[in-house]
Write the structure tokens for this entry.
Amino acid sequence: MDIKSEQEMLNFGREYASKIVRPVVIELVGDVGTGKTTFVRGLAEGLGVREPVTSPSFTISKSYALPEGGRLIHYDFYRLSEPGIMKDDLVDNMKDEKNILVVEWGESVAELLPKKHTKIEIEYTEDGRRIII
Ligand code: ADP
Ligand code: MG
């Protein structure tokens, strides 16, 4: 799929929200600046999250209450070579079937993610578009 602007990425996230069947873990793969966090902003909006979504790159995780219960939990492990106690946090949050987990830079926790999880890859094109795989 071809995403031509930030707005289209937000729309993609918003539409994706309606397709989610919980529990789900979504791994986002793509270089810095491809739009992973932008996707999560759209996703959160589509799920009915009212608070603004900001990047968890400094806090590692951010969590938002969902209107029907459960939480959207957004991780960014970019700065963590060794996830340490965040592993427990991730595993605990995966146990609640009402939660939706989204993980950026999940290599260091790859063995903890469910074998069957959703992987969304985002790639740059030369002319600034993004391609979703
Ligand atoms: P990541 O989380 O992958 O590092 P962000 O979502 O934080 O990326 O940032 C993506 C940046 O790229 C935003 O500033 C956004 O405005 C910009 N951008 C430009 N074109 C697109 C596009 N087609 N899709 C998504 N983001 C885009
Ligand atoms: Mg990001």
About this structure: The domain at 2-132 is CATH 3.40.50.300 (Rossmann fold). Residues 17 and 47 are 6 Å apart (CA to CA). The first strand starts at residue 2 and ends at 3. The chain has a mean pLDDT of 95.
